[in-house]
Every structure is written in structure tokens, then in C-alpha cells.
């Protein structure tokens, strides 16, 4: 198809024809940029040829003699051997007047007559013919260049381009077109369309071809004949020939496979979206990136009752409750500006005019490649029921809180009332206790007065008798009366002891005690106390631990328990006394107040008597509690035992069953040491007497007692100094003079015995002291531990015991 530019027309023939017509020797055609052609005068230089051509005109210009024309006379072609003389020159001009070249006829002979008219006319005709020929060639060259440009454009265009003639034969095809159908362009041109696209594809195109040949420009999408998924958008443009009929068709095609696919995908996803959106129970809507609403699913229209399409753009705004509009707009604009998800609760007007609460939400859909927002998809969910439930709940909660607050207040009030009542009750109880105490004190005072009166009667009566007999001089058998008085006095002493134990102010002389030995030693005493109808059994444990307590009190306690047992068995029965090692564990201790877990020695006294009902057990330890008739019971026995065990850091417990009997268990702490020495030598030995005139200072505020002690000591042979109070005693002690022993009451008014001694020790560091204690002074000795050289004797005391103690202190060591 490639063709070079057409050669310039060979105008040598034209020149020869002109020479012939004009009868000249030479002729030449001169065109710009080309050498002169024709029967040119030999040796004519190009510049001289041009100088000659310059003389030509639109009509033939005749120069009869060139040698006579000043413009040409100097040319070598004129004055040289060629000796040219005659010239007729004609300009070759295009139809547009443009200069195309020059035609000249030349002759060596001058022609004064020039050319004949016929010759001139013929020359002009020849010139016009030549000019036409030159014009045609130029036009052809230009057309060829245009065609080449168009071809390269069609080749470069991303389109299928072809032309069909009326017979549907391909007259032109670009590379894309040929390649689309799997051919080379050369194989395409000259073939029919049917041949090129194949039978099936041709059938599909026929209606379009028919319409195009009927004069219509048609466009359609055509699948590739090979059905390889490619698609082209095809356009047939009919062209009319000069006769007005359709001469041919231009075929234009664009490969739109990618677009089709994208569109198909889009259509697919749009379809899916629509299917989902329309089947959703919620209202679904969608907007353009700028927020223009262009889609609502059917739920929206059902809910709002609005005609389809009427809420596009901002038409939806009217459906919002006016109260929420500003906030909804604010958030929506914010989301549109930032791309942040949109969420708000608002009221939407339903078709029936009722506003319902709705949860509005929207999310932006972004282009995966650029991230730009393509659309917004939103939903409206009717949450009216939830909102109402929420409100009801909040109201209920509020009501509940109010109720709770009210109840709390009521409770606080009740509590306050209760506290007041408790306080009132405590006050009443305190008053009751006080009155009970007064009653108890009255009972105690009465009881003691009664007992003491009896005892005093015994003592006074005996002393009376003795006095009478002495006065009468009947001094024989006086000791009997003295014995009676003594017995009464001793009972009185025992009574005060019991009272003190009850008050827990009894000075205890705690020491390591072997309970087995103690119980065994009581055997005789107990048998006599119990009488014949009660059998006594003593069961002592082997390997019994020692305990730490006052043995006299323990003896007293066992005796009291035995007496209670006897009283509970008026018709006789069995009394058992057992000893045992006992371990009170944490579980036991937890149920008893004031008891420490650990190892104890247990003394257990059981009877087969009447037993005690629970209410009696509960009160049995109370002082003065007795079920016995007036005069038989004081109610102090168990109380005293309780006081003793507590003071000994032990524990006492009653187990009893009515009609079965009673067991009382005493727990006394185990002592990890050696047993105390055997008791002091028993009474009956002669009372020891002073031998070396030892001096004893007696400090006692009670004159009677002081006199009694003084006389006793004097009788025993000691020198006695008496002092009525601590100050006097201290003065005597601080003065020089022999004092072997101080006997002092602890409970002295002012400077007490203990402090007096403490101060005297500065002057007499080795002072020996015998303290006489009543009850309350126990604390003054801190658990009764005394410094060496100091002893203690408890009131009331027997004179012989007192004398023995004094002697032992003045002269320590074996006598
Ligand atoms: P009293 O013996 O002077 O009544 P107690 O303090 O020794 O005072 O005893 C208080 C009360 O406990 C007794 O009156 C009696 O009711 C009851 N009681 C004590 N021991 C026994 C016992 N072994 N069997 C039955 N009841 C007893
Ligand atoms: Mg008793």
C-alpha cells in the first residue's frame, strides 16, 4: 500500500509542443527548485535561464531581440556563442493564481514581427494545460500525504477501524481491526465481512448492517466471535456517495471488555446490595458522597408512607421530629466532613403521624484504591419499644431508689428506737441488778448476822460460864468451855473465809499440789461428813500431774461439793471422787468464756442424787443462790468454788440430770515443777519459846489485836515494842536499837505496813518481817512472792501457828 510521492510531471513534451507551435529552435519549462526541461539552448546556465524566465508574463511576453533589451543584452546566452535573440515567455499559474513555473520559447534569430496571433494563442493554451498538469500532480502529492497521515492515525488509534463497500467487502482495515479478527491487514482488505467475522457473528451483525446501509448510524455491543469474553462497542457510520446513495460504511470499534466487566461487577454488587437492602427488616438508605439521598429500601416507604422518590435529596428532613433535627444535622454534617460513622437516636414520623424512636446509623463506602468515599449506606432501626422499656426501667429504678431510701430511713428510725429501747432496758436492768444486789447484800448481811449471832452466842455463852465458874472458884473443867468457845470462833473464821473466797479477795497461797495426796488425806474427814448412808469411792489417776493452787481452798472446795452431794442424797447413794489429767482443747475452750486451752488436773465429784434442772444449773454459781430451806443453805458453796477456780486460773463445770445425779468437775492448771514440801509440823508439839531476849516490833492499829499479839509474844519470852501505826513503826525502825523481827499488819491507815517496811529497809537491809494480812492486801505482794526474810500469815490465825512462824523466822535453820 505504501506509495511514494508522484514524480513531477514531465513537461519536456509540453516544451517541445510549444517550440513546434512557435517555430523556434528551443523551448524550456522552468519550475521552482528543478532544472529547466525541454529542448533547452545548449550550455544555458541556470541563473541565465531564470533571468530569461523572469521576463515572462500572464499572457505571452514577446522579446523580438534579446540583444537590444537592456535586461538581457549582457547575458552570455545572448552575447555568447548561443547568440539567442528571440524569446516569448509565459507564466504558468494555478487556478488560484499561484505561480507554478515558466514556459519560454527561444530562437537565435531575432523576430521583429514577434509571434503570430495563432501561435501566441496556441502558446497560451499550452501554458494553461501545463499549469493544470502541475496543479494536479501537486494535489495528488498532497492527497497522498494526507492519506498516509490518516493511516498512521488509524493505526495509532486504540480502535478498530475499517470501511466496507456496498457489497460488504472490506476496503480498509487498520491493524487493530485485522488483529481483532486474527488476521493481517493485507488479508482483511478485499474480503467480505462475513468471511472476516465468521458465520455466527455475521448473523448477529446483519440487522445492524441492514440499518446502516439504510442510512442510520448504529451502535451496538458485540461479543468477540471467538467468545473469549472480549467485548467491543461497534459503530457503523454510513457514507453517501455523490449520487446520494449509501456508498460505503465506516466501521469503528472500541474494546470495552474492562468496562463491561467492571460494569457487570458493579451491576452484580448493586443487585446484591439491593437484594439485601430490600429484604432487611430495617429501613436502609444510601447517599452520594455529598450526602444526597438517592436510595431508600421499601421499609422506609412503608414506615413513612411517603411516595417513592419523594424523600430523595433532603426530602427526608421533614420526617424527623423537629426536636432532634438540629442535632441530627450537626452529626450528619460532621460525618460527611470527616468520614466518621454516623449514629444517633431520633424520632421519625410514621405514616400514621406518630413519632417513633429510631436508631440511625451510617457508614461510608470507600474506593479501595483511592480511599475516597463513594457512597454512604445507612439504616434506621425502630427502637421505640426498647426506648420506652428503658424509660420505664429508669422510672422504676428511680421509684425503687426512693423506696429503698424510704425504707432505709424507716430502718434507721427503727434502729434508733431499738437502740433507745436497748439503752432503756440496760438502764432498767442496771436498776434491777442494783436492787438485786441490795437484796443480796441484805440476805448476806442477814445470813451473816444470823450465823455470827449463833457463833457469838456459843463464844459469849462459854466465856460467861467460864467467868462464872472462875468467880465461884470452880476452875476445874474450864478447858471444856474454852474448847466450845474456840470451836465457835473457828467456825466464825471459816465463815469469813468463805465470804472472802466469794468476794475473791481471799489471799491464796498457791503452791504445787498433788491432788491425789490431797484427796486421799481427806478420806477420813469426808466419811465422817457424809454419814453412813452415803458410800464414798475415791478413784485416783496414776501419773497425775501436779497443779498450782491453794491446797486449803481445794480441800474446802471438795468438802463443799461433798456436802452438796450429801444434801442431794437424803436417802443415801454413792459419792465418787476422781482425779485425772485433762487436756482442754481449742474446740472446748471456744464454747467457754474465759478458759484457756491447755493441760489441767481434773478433780471430779459425782453423786447419784436428785440432780439439777437446767435453770438451777444456770444459777447454781450465783452467790446466795440456794434451793435449800432458810438456815440450811447459804448459797455460797458453789460461788466460792467458782471464785477459787477462777482465781487459780482454772475452770469449773456442772453436769447434772434430774433424778440421775450430778457431776461437778474442777479443772486446775497443770504445774510443771516439784511438789511443795510436806506440811509444817502438826500442832501438839510444845510451843517454842524465846531464849535470848529477842526483840519484836509489833505494828498494828487495832489495839485489841496489838495487845493480844504483844501478850502472846511476851508470854513466849520475847521483848515486845508496840506501835499503833506505820509512821511510829518507821521512826522506831530508823532509830538505833535491837529489833530481830517486825510483825506488822499490812492494812494500816496512812503509811501501810508494806511501805513502812520498804522504807525501813534502807536503814536495816536484813530486816525480817512477818506480815499479817486480812484480804485486800494480797495485791500489795504481787502474787504473794516475798523477799527473803519475809513471811506472811493470814488472819485469823492460831496462836501456836503464829508462835511457830515467829520462832522460825528469828532463828532460821534446824534447832
Ligand atoms: P447451798 O448448798 O448453800 O444451797 P451452793 O452454792 O452450794 O449453796 O449450792 C447452790 C444450789 O445448787 C443448791 O441449793 C442446790 O440447789 C444446787 N446444788 C448444788 N450441788 C448440788 C448437787 N450435788 N445435787 C443437786 N443440787 C445441787
Ligand atoms: Mg452448799
Structure commentary:
The chain is of the alpha+beta class and 815 residues long. The chain folds into 6 domains: 12-153, GAF domain (Beta-Lactamase), CATH 3.30.450.40; 157-255, PAS domain (Beta-Lactamase, 2-Layer Sandwich); 260-382, Beta-Lactamase; 389-502, no CATH class; 508-671, Histidine kinase-like ATPase, C-terminal domain (Heat Shock Protein 90, 2-Layer Sandwich), CATH 3.30.565; 695-810, Rossmann fold. The strands form 5 sheets. Strands 15, 16, 17, 18, 19, 20 and 21 form a 7-stranded mixed beta sheet that branches. Helix 12 (384-472) runs antiparallel to helix 13. The radius of gyration is 78 Å and the shape is rod-shaped. Residues 678-686 and 776-780 have low confidence and may be disordered. It binds adenosine-5'-diphosphate and magnesium ion. Residues 564-565, 568, 607, 609-612, 616, 620, 625-628, 633-639, 662 line the site of adenosine-5'-diphosphate (ADP).
Primary descriptors:
seven-stranded mixed beta sheet, 815 residues, binds magnesium ion, Beta-Lactamase, 43% helix, alpha+beta, binds adenosine-5'-diphosphate, 6 domains, five-stranded antiparallel beta sheet
Short description:
By secondary structure, the protein is α+β, with helices and mostly antiparallel strands.
Amino acid at each position: 500500500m505504501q506509495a511514494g510521492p508522484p514524480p513531477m510531471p514531465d513537461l519536456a513534451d509540453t516544451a517541445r509542443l510549444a517550440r513546434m507551435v512557435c517555430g523556434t529552435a528551443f523551448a524550456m519549462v522552468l519550475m521552482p527548485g528543478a532544472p529547466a526541461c525541454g529542448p533547452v539552448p545548449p550550455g544555458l546556465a541556470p541563473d541565465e535561464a531564470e533571468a530569461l524566465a523572469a521576463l515572462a508574463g500572464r499572457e505571452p511576453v514577446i522579446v523580438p531581440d534579446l540583444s537590444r533589451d537592456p535586461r538581457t543584452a549582457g547575458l552570455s546566452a545572448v552575447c555568447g556563442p548561443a547568440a539567442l535573440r528571440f524569446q516569448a515567455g509565459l507564466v504558468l499559474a494555478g487556478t488560484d493564481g499561484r505561480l507554478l513555473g515558466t514556459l519560454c520559447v527561444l530562437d537565435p534569430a531575432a523576430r521583429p514581427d514577434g509571434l503570430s496571433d495563432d501561435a501566441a494563442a496556441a502558446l497560451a493554451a499550452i501554458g494553461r494545460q501545463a499549469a493544470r498538469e502541475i496543479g494536479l500532480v501537486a494535489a495528488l502529492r498532497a492527497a497522498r500525504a494526507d492519506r498516509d497521515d490518516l493511516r498512521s492515525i488509524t493505526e495509532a488509534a486504540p480502535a478498530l477501524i475499517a470501511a466496507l463497500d456496498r457489497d460488504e467487502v472490506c476496503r480498509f482495515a487498520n491493524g487493530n481491526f485485522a488483529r481483532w479478527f486474527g488476521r493481517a491487514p493485507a488479508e482483511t482488505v478485499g474480503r467480505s465481512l462475513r468471511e472476516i467475522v465468521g458465520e455466527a457473528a455475521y448473523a448477529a451483525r446483519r440487522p445492524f448492517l441492514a440499518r446502516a446501509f439504510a442510512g442510520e448510524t448504529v451502535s451496538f455491543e458485540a461479543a468477540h466471535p471467538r467468545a473469549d469474553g472480549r467485548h467491543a462497542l461497534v459503530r457503523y457510520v454510513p457514507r453517501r456517495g455523490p449520487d446520494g446513495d449509501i456508498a460505503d460504511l465506516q466501521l469503528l470499534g472500541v474494546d470495552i471488555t474492562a468496562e463491561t466487566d467492571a460494569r457487570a461487577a458493579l451491576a452484580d454488587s448493586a443487585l446484591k446490595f439491593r437484594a439485601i437492602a430490600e429484604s432487611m427488616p430495617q429501613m436502609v438508605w444510601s447517599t452520594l458522597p455529598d450526602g444526597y439521598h438517592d436510595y431508600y429500601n421499601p421499609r422506609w416507604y412503608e414506615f413513612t408512607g411517603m411516595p417513592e422518590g419523594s424523600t430523595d435529596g433532603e426530602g427526608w428532613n421533614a420526617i424527623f421530629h423537629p426536636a432532634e433535627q438540629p442535632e441530627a444535622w450537626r452529626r450528619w454534617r460532621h460525618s460527611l466532613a470527616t468520614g466518621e460513622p454516623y449514629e444517633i437516636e431520633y424520632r421519625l414520623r410514621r405514616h400514621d403521624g406518630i413519632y417513633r424512636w429510631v436508631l440511625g446509623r451510617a457508614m461510608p463506602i470507600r474506593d479501595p484504591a483511592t480511599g475516597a468515599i463513594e457512597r454512604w449506606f445507612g439504616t434506621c432501626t425502630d427502637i421505640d419499644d426498647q426506648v420506652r422499656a428503658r424509660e420505664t426501667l429508669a422510672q422504676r429504678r428511680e421509684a425503687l431508689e426512693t423506696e429503698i431510701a424510704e425504707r432505709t430511713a424507716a430502718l434507721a428510725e427503727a434502729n434508733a428506737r431499738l437502740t433507745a429501747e436497748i439503752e432503756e432496758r440496760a438502764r432498767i436492768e442496771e436498776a434491777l441488778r442494783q436492787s438485786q444486789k441490795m437484796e443480796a447484800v441484805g440476805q448476806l448481811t442477814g445470813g451473816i448476822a444470823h450465823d455470827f449471832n449463833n457463833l457469838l452466842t456459843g463464844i459469849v455463852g462459854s466465856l460467861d460460864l467460864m467467868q462464872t465458874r472462875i468467880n465461884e472458884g470452880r476452875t476445874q473443867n474450864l478447858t471444856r468451855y474454852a474448847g466450845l468457845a474456840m470451836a465457835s470462833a473457828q467456825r466464825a473464821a471459816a465463815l469469813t473465809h468463805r465470804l472472802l473466797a466469794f468476794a475473791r479477795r481471799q489471799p491464796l497461797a498457791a503452791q504445787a499440789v498433788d491432788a491425789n495426796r490431797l484427796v486421799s488425806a481427806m478420806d477420813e474427814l469426808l466419811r465422817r461428813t457424809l454419814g453412813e448412808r452415803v458410800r464414798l469411792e475415791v478413784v485416783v489417776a496414776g501419773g497425775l500431774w501436779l497443779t498450782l493452787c491453794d491446797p486449803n481452798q481445794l480441800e474446802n472446795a471438795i468438802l463443799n461439793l461433798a456436802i452438796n452431794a450429801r444434801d442431794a442424797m437424803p436417802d443415801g447413794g454413792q459419792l465418787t471422787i476422781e482425779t485425772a489429767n485433762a487436756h482442754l482443747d481449742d474446740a472446748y475452750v471456744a464454747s467457754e468464756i474465759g478458759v484457756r486451752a491447755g493441760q489441767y488436773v481434773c478433780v471430779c465429784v459425782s453423786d447419784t442424787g436428785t440432780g439439777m434442772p437446767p435453770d438451777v444449773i444456770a444459777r447454781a454459781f450465783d452467790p446466795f443462790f440456794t434451793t435449800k430451806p432458810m438456815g440450811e443453805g447459804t448459797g455460797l458453796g458453789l460461788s466460792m468454788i467458782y471464785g477459787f477456780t477462777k482465781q487459780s486460773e482454772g475452770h469449773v463445770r456442772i453436769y447434772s440430770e434430774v433424778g440421775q445425779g450430778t457431776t461437778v468437775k474442777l479443772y486446775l492448771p497443770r504445774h510443771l515443777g516439784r511438789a511443795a514440801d510436806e506440811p509444817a509440823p502438826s500442832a501438839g508439839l510444845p510451843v517454842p519459846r524465846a531464849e535470848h531476849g529477842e526483840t519484836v516490833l509489833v505494828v498494828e492499829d487495832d489495839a485489841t489485836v496489838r495487845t493480844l499479839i504483844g501478850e502472846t509474844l511476851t508470854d513466849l519470852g520475847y521483848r515486845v515494842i508496840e506501835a499503833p501505826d506505820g509512821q511510829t513503826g518507821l521512826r522506831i525502825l530508823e532509830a538505833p536499837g535491837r529489833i530481830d523481827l517486825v510483825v506488822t499488819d499490812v492494812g494500816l491507815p496512812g503509811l501501810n505496813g508494806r511501805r513502812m517496811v520498804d522504807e525501813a529497809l534502807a536503814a536495816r537491809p536484813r530486816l525480817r518481817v512477818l506480815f499479817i494480812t486480812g484480804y485486800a492486801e494480797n495485791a500489795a505482794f504481787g502474787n504473794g512472792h516475798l523477799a527473803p526474810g519475809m513471811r506472811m500469815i493470814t488472819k485469823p490465825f492460831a496462836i501456836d501457828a503464829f508462835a511457830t512462824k515467829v520462832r522460825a523466822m528469828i532463828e532460821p535453820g534446824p534447832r
